[in-house]
Structure formats: structure tokens, C-alpha cells
């Protein structure tokens, strides 16, 4: 019989119970006992869901109060010295508060310290805490949480499979804080602790342990490939069966390596890389189990069960009982339960499957392949087939006008009328800006009052006109503040925007919004990505009246503010029935119309934010160029409609520009504002080396910090910038939007920034 399982389940809870519980604990409103109780209740509920769905194993080890990578660091005793509570790190069990301090810098107990770095997990929007390695690093088994959870599940009578991030991927994700330190030199010590962990699990009666090694779908240096062999030859000796799990892509040149490691099973992603299934089947040793990740764990579309049955029939024949079925990856990346979406349009809802529904899909597919489908399974297949047929034919998805317009797009549509030097002259005349012009990235503080007004609208307590008037007041306030501060290019402040993607998605056709479709982003933070289900088009202007109003309040140029096509795509659940590129082009065309309308309304500068450009990079460097080509083309398609006199800005905020500097230049934005303040302007090296031709506003202060930046300090940073970029092409601005700050911080910080620009003008 085909075994049905999952790589992991979302832990936040259908109502984000985990968020509420951890935040209450952090605020000191509840105690540890209450928090642990919530954790236990959520785990049990999720195991029961897996059993009720008919999975053969429940997965233990996917729960974490903050982050599963952090939990492995704690398990291995890899706790940086600054978090050491007395001798906890040397000997005892590492406490939950220590883990929280690693994650957030503080916890109800213990001394605050600088939190560990956080970054995106592979190509997902989930952020993990980067394991930190120091010279003289040692490891020891420092937590019994995993074993407690196994005991918990067994006591409840569940058949347990444990999941744990594998040693190589943990090290791959780690950063050595001392340059000399070679991560792989620590492998033996790490593997020794993993050996202990596996032995303990075996003693607890665990039969299968899934070791997640998604690093195997990336380009691995030779030493790392060899390290896999070394590590797994040791771990393979522990008397527990190991399922080596990969996801997010194909194994590529690591396929032989992965297939031949001395473990009992392999899990592959057959959604992202369906083509690898045949190759794996041909090479898989006869004693191994193959877990096929057939249901999409990264997206929310209902599976075509009938089609999957056909596609997997030969795998079933060849593998017999050695076939396992699962979603492609942990369900951490999709919302919990579609059943909660009672207000979603029923037709659209019938096209979707969230985590809970995906459990059913896995089970039914296993039954189908075994030829033991129940009446319920047959109903499910029938319902899926019908829904998907309806989706293929739906007029809500296919808007012929969108496709026709896309077909008419030519290369000329992605070219501004004139090259940058010509545009720059026209813009200089029209905008009348001084040297070192000052500006901000777009948002001003999203105050409690603004958010309360939005809630009141939702609750029906505030009418649309009253809301509009409230937002206009906010805009007028922001404009007046900026004029008083002496900023050169103003923004309206984005008071009316709940979120930079949602705001636009709500004004476009082809987008839908769920009510409870939360996905964990990091720690207790969840996001609710919009769903792009159909052809995207713009029924009417989205931002024009706000920008126009803001411009009417001032003589100074007011920047229009848009979210770019790649970011709109990247931060949504995207339809899977056409290439992402096509969807992105549709969004680009909608934004193009907005650019044109803003311009017609008298807006002389328009910023098209693309903070997600870099995170869209594929996991394999060989695929980067193809992605960057269409991503850049989409940005240009939105922007190139602008006349020479209209200044196009863009903004990006992440710290590694080196890989994509050519693509950034290819955007051909007149001005780019970027995050650089934390790296002391070193980032500009990439721009200097590339001889970046257009204007740059390197962020002069870190908006994530409440500290007020000093004038001298910002002047010095800009002097460094001026060594790399000609001063006439430099702007002065913070490194990101100010929405998370309060006015009490924003005003003095910007006053100093404006003063710094004045000093610079006197000097240059
Ligand atoms: N314009 C946006 C803001 O200022 C940009 C946000 C971002 O970079 N993520 O908030
Ligand atoms: Zn930013």
C-alpha cells in the first residue's frame, strides 16, 4: 500500500493561536506554562487532523515556537556566547527564553542581547534565524524538546515520523562569524550530535526520521557534495530509518549523490521538478523508499487528482510498496484551512486547497494508485476534475482583451524615448532640484489612528467619505511636515495603504483576497498573500486621486508611488496555469496605465518599488539570467511609457546587489534608492565597479532603528558615497519607508538628514 504522509504542517493554527500565545507571553501577560499548553494543543490538533485525513504517519518535529532552524541550533547547543544564561549553554537544557532572545534580542527572562540575523529560507517568504558559528565552536545535545514531542505523540497513540533539518543544510544555512572558520570543519562535531539525537529517537521507538536537506537542490561546491557522503555514512549506521527529504526544485547534478546516500528513503519535489521523477526511478537502489512530493506545498491550487493518478501510475508499478506520497514540501508555506473562507466566492473557492485540504488530496491519491478508492475518494476526484475543468474554461480567468494587448507589446514598449543623459537634462529643467536632493522612500508613520480608521471602515463604523477625508488630513499633514523640514522631493506618505501589495491587488481584476489565509513569515509574524487567479487588468486609476491631491498642496515635486510588477508577483500566490512571466507582464501593463495616468495628472516623478526583485532569483544560478531578463522587461514595460521629463524612481532594500547589479542597471530607472546605511556604503562598490550610469540615493540611515542619526555621521557616509559615485548623481534619503516609525523619531531624523544635505551642497 502506498504510504501517505506530509513533510510538515503549518504550526500557527487556523486562527493564528500561536501568534496570540507567543505575543502574550512576550508581553508578560501569560506564563510559560500557558504558552507550552498552547503549543501542546496545537500539535495535538494537527496530529489529529493528519490521522483523521487518513495519513499513515503523523509528522513530529515540525512545530516550533519561533523557527524550526533556530530549534535545531538550540538542539545542537549552537547558542552564541552573548545569550549564555550562566552555565546554561555549557551544560543544562537551553531554555525557551534563550531561544527567544536569539530570535528577538529579548525575552521575559535573561539579559537582552543583539538578536541573530534573519533571512529568507531558500526561495520562500519564510524567514529563518541564521545559525551563527564562532571560532572554537562546540556542540552538544542541548534540548529535549524534540524527544518530549515524540513522547507526547506516542502517548496520544499516533504513528510517528520525525522531521528534522539535516546537518548539511543546517551548516549550509549557517554563517561563520570568524572569517577563518570553515563551516565544513565543524561537520564531524555536528554529525556526532545528530547521531546522538537519532539514537535517542531510535530508543524512543521511532522508526522513520525525515532529514530535510533542501540544499541538495542548489549548486553545491564539490567539498559539500563530499560532505554529504561523509555525514550520511555516519548517520546511516544509527538503527533508525532515514528519509532524505529534498524540496523546492530538482536535484540536478546532485541526483546521483542523493539517490545513493546510505539511507532508507528519498523524498523528491515532483511539483517544481516533475521531470526528475523518471531519472530518480531509474537510479533508485531497490531497497529504498521513494516519497514523491506530488501535491503542491507552495501554492494553494487544488490538485488534479485524476491527472496525477495517470502520471504516477508507472511509479506505482515500478516501486510497489516502496512508493510514498506527500506534498512537495512542508505545508508551512500555505494557509491552514480553506473551510474558514466562507466569504470567498464559491467558484474561486472550489479551485483552491489549503493545508488541511492537501492532506485529503494526498490520501485520496494514495488510495487511487493502490486501486482502493472509497466512495469518498471517488467523489473527491470527481469534484476536483469538475472544479479544474471549470477553472480552465472560466471567463473570470481568461480576459481576451488582456491577452490581445499582451500580444501587441513590442520591444519598443520597454524603451524610454531617450537615453538617461537626455532625460536627466529634461528632468533637471522640470524639477528644479538642488544638488544632493533629499527625499524619502514613500511611507510616513502608519499611526494607531490611521489603522483604527481602516478598522472602523471594515466594521462599517466609518463611511467611505469620512475615511477619505481622514486620509486626506493625513496626507496634508505629511506634506506640511515635509515642507517644513525642507525636503526637496515629497511623497504623500501612503496613509491610505494597508499594505504595498494588497492595496494594488484590491484595485486590480484577477486578484482575490482571503480572510484567514495567513502564512507564517517569521516568528509570530504572518502574511496573507493575495491570490492571483486570473488575467490581471486595471479597471481604473488606483493611486491618481491621492497623488493629485498631495501635489495640489505643494509647489515641490510630489513622487507618485507604485509597487512594481515583480514585487506584486513575488508576494502573492500566483496562478499555476500559465508561466509566472506572463502573469508578471499583465501586472506590468496595468501599472503602465497607472504611470501614464499619474503623468497626465501632473505628477513629475513616479517611484516603482521593487524590493522583491532579488528574492525572485531561482535557486540555481543557471536559471538566473532567464528570470532577470523577464523581470527587468516587466519593470521597463511599466515605466517606459513615461515621458523624458518624468523621473522614474525605483527602490530596493536588501543588502546583496552584487549578483544582480547588471539587472538593476538594466531597469534604467532614473533614480534608485537603496538600503546601504548598515554596510557603511560598501554596497556602493558594486555600483561603482559596474559604472552604474544613473542616479542613486544610498540610504543614509537605518529606519529599523529608533535612534536619531547625527548630521556628521550622514555627511560622512555621503562623502564615502561621493568617492564612488559622482556627486551630481547622488540623492540623500533614508534606507526604506518610515511606516513603522513614529513622528517623534521621523521629524528629528529627517531634519538632520536635510541639514546633512545642506552641508554636502556647501562642500561640493
Ligand atoms: N514605498 C514603500 C514604503 O515606503 C517601500 C516599502 C519597501 O521597500 N518594502 O513603505
Ligand atoms: Zn525598502
Automatic annotation (TrEMBL):
Annotated source species: Halomonas kalidii
Protein's name according to its UniProt entry: 5-methyltetrahydropteroyltriglutamate--homocysteine methyltransferase
InterPro entries: Cbl-indep_Met_Synth_N (IPR013215), Cobalamin-indep_Met_synthase (IPR006276), Met_Synth_C/arc (IPR002629), UROD/MetE-like_sf (IPR038071)
Keywords: Amino-acid biosynthesis, Metal-binding, Methionine biosynthesis, Methyltransferase, Repeat, Transferase, Zinc
Chain residues that bind L-homocysteine: 441-443, 494, 609
Cofactor(s) the record lists: Zn(2+)
Binding site for Zn(2+): 651, 653, 675, 736
The Cobalamin-independent methionine synthase MetE C-terminal/archaeal domain, residue ranges: 436-758
Domain Cobalamin-independent methionine synthase MetE N-terminal: 4-314
Pfam families in UniProt: Meth_synt_1 (PF08267), Meth_synt_2 (PF01717)
Domain of life: Bacteria
Entry binding sites for L-methionine: 441-443, 494, 609
Known role: Catalyzes the transfer of a methyl group from 5-methyltetrahydrofolate to homocysteine resulting in methionine formation.
Any GO MF annotation of the entry: 5-methyltetrahydropteroyltriglutamate-homocysteine S-methyltransferase activity
Top EC class of this enzyme: transferase
Biological-process GO terms, alphabetical: methylation
Membership in a protein family: Belongs to the vitamin-B12 independent methionine synthase family.
The record's free-text note on cofactor binding: Binds 1 zinc ion per subunit.
Methyltransferase among keywords: yes
Reactions the enzyme catalyzes: 5-methyltetrahydropteroyltri-L-glutamate + L-homocysteine = tetrahydropteroyltri-L-glutamate + L-methionine
Amino acid at each position: 500500500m502506498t504510504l501517505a504522509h506530509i513533510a510538515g504542517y503549518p504550526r500557527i493554527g487556523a486562527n493564528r493561536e500561536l501568534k496570540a500565545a507567543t505575543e502574550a507571553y512576550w508581553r508578560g501577560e501569560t506564563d510559560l506554562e500557558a504558552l507550552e499548553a498552547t503549543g501542546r494543543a496545537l500539535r495535538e490538533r494537527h496530529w489529529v487532523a493528519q490521522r483523521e485525513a487518513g495519513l499513515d504517519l503523523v509528522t513530529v518535529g515540525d512545530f516550533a515556537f519561533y523557527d524550526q532552524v533556530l530549534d535545531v541550533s538550540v538542539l545542537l547547543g549552537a547558542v552564541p556566547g552573548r545569550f549564555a544564561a550562566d552555565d546554561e549553554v555549557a551544560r543544562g537544557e537551553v531554555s525557551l527564553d534563550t531561544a527567544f532572545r536569539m530570535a528577538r534580542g529579548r525575552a521575559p527572562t535573561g539579559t537582552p542581547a543583539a538578536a541573530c540575523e534573519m533571512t529568507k529560507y531558500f526561495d520562500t517568504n519564510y524567514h529563518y534565524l541564521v545559525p551563527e558559528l564562532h571560532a572554537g565552536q562546540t556542540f552538544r545535545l542541548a534540548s529535549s524538546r524534540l524527544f518530549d514531542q515524540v513522547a507526547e505523540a506516542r502517548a496520544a497513540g499516533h504513528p510517528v515520523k520525525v522531521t528534522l533539518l539535516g546537518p548539511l543544510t543546517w551548516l549550509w544555512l549557517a554563517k561563520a562569524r570568524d572569517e577563518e572558520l570553515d563551516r565544513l570543519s565543524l561537520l564531524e562535531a555536528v554529525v556526532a550530535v545528530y547521531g546522538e539525537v537519532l539514537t535517542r529517537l531510535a530508543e524512543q521507538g521511532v522508526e522513520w526520521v525525515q532529514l530535510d536537506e533542501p540544499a541538495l537542490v542548489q549548486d553545491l561546491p564539490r567539498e559539500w557534495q563530499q560532505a554529504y557522503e561523509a555525514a550520511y555514512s555516519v548517520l546511516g549506521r544509527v538503527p533508525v530509518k532515514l528519509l532524505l527529504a529534498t524540496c523546492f526544485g530538482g536535484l540536478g547534478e546532485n541526483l546521483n549523490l542523493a539517490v545513493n546516500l546510505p539511507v532508507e528513503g528519498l523524498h523528491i519535489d515532483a511539483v517544481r521538478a516533475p521531470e526528475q521523477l523518471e531519472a530518480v526511478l531509474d537510479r533508485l537502489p531497490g531497497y529504498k523508499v521513494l516519497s514523491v512530493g506530488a501535491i503542491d506545498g507552495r501554492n494553494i491550487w487544488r490538485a488534479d487528482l485524476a491527472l496525477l493518478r495517470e502520471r504516477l501510475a508507472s511509479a506505482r508499478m515500478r516501486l510497489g510498496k516502496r512508493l510514498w506520497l506527500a506534498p512537495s514540501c512542508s505545508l508551512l508555506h500555505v494557509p491552514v484551512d480553506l473551510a474558514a473562507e466562507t466569504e470567498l466566492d464559491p467558484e474561486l473557492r472550489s479551485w483552491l486547497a489549503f493545508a488541511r485540504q492537501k492532506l485529503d488530496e494526498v490520501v485520496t491519491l494514495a488510495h487511487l494508485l493502490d486501486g482502493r478508492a472509497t466512495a469518498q475518494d471517488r467523489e473527491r476526484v470527481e469534484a476536483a476534475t469538475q472544479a479544474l475543468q471549470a477553472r480552465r474554461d472560466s471567463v473570470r480567468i481568461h480576459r481576451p482583451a488582456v491577452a490581445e494587448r499582451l500580444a501587441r507589446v513590442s520591444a519598443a514598449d520597454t524603451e524610454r524615448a531617450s537615453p538617461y543623459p537626455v532625460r536627466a537634462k529634461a528632468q533637471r529643467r522640470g524639477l528644479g532640484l538642488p544638488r544632493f536632493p533629499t527625499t524619502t522612500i514613500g511611507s510616513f508613520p502608519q499611526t494607531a489612528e490611521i489603522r483604527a480608521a481602516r478598522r472602523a471602515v471594515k466594521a462599517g463604523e466609518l463611511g467611505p467619505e469620512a475615511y477619505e477625508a481622514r486620509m486626506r488630513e493625513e496626507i496634508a499633514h505629511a506634506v506640511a511636515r515635509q515642507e517644513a523640514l525642507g525636503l526637496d522631493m515629497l511623497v504623500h506618505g501612503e496613509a491610505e495603504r494597508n499594505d504595498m501589495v494588497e492595496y494594488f491587488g484590491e484595485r486590480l481584476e484577477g486578484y482575490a483576497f482571503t480572510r484567514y489565509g495567513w502564512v507564517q513569515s517569521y516568528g509570530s509574524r504572518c502574511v496573507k498573500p493575495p491570490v492571483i487567479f486570473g488575467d490581471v487588468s486595471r479597471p481604473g486609476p488606483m493611486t491618481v486621486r491621492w497623488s493629485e491631491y498631495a501635489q495640489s498642496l505643494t509647489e515641490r515635486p510630489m513622487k507618485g508611488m507604485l509597487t512594481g510588477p515583480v514585487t506584486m508577483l513575488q508576494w502573492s500566490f500566483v496562478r499555476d496555469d500559465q508561466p509566472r512571466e506572463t502573469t508578471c507582464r499583465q501586472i506590468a501593463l496595468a501599472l503602465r496605465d497607472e504611470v501614464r495616468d499619474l503623468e497626465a495628472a501632473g505628477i513629475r516623478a513616479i517611484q516603482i518599488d521593487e524590493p522583491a526583485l532579488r528574492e525572485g532569483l531561482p535557486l540555481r544560478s543557471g536559471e538566473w539570467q532567464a528570470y532577470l531578463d523577464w523581470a527587468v522587461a516587466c519593470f521597463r514595460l511599466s515605466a517606459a511609457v513615461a515621458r523624458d521629463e518624468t523621473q522614474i524612481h525605483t527602490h530596493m532594500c536588501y543588502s546583496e546587489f552584487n549578483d544582480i547589479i547588471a539587472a538593476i542597471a538594466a531597469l534604467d530607472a532614473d533614480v534608485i534608492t537603496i538600503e546601504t546605511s548598515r554596510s557603511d556604503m560598501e554596497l556602493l562598490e558594486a555600483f561603482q565597479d559596474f559604472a552604474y550610469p544613473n542616479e542613486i540615493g544610498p540610504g543614509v540611515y537605518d529606519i529599523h532603528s529608533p535612534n536619531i542619526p547625527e548630521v556628521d555621521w550622514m555627511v560622512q557616509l555621503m562623502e564615502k558615497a561621493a568617492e564612488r559615485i559622482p556627486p551630481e548623481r547622488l540623492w540623500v534619503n533614508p534606507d526604506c519607508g518610515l511606516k513603522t516609525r513614529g513622528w517623534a523619531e521621523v521629524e528629528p531624523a529627517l531634519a538632520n538628514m536635510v541639514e546633512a544635505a545642506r552641508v554636502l551642497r556647501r562642500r561640493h
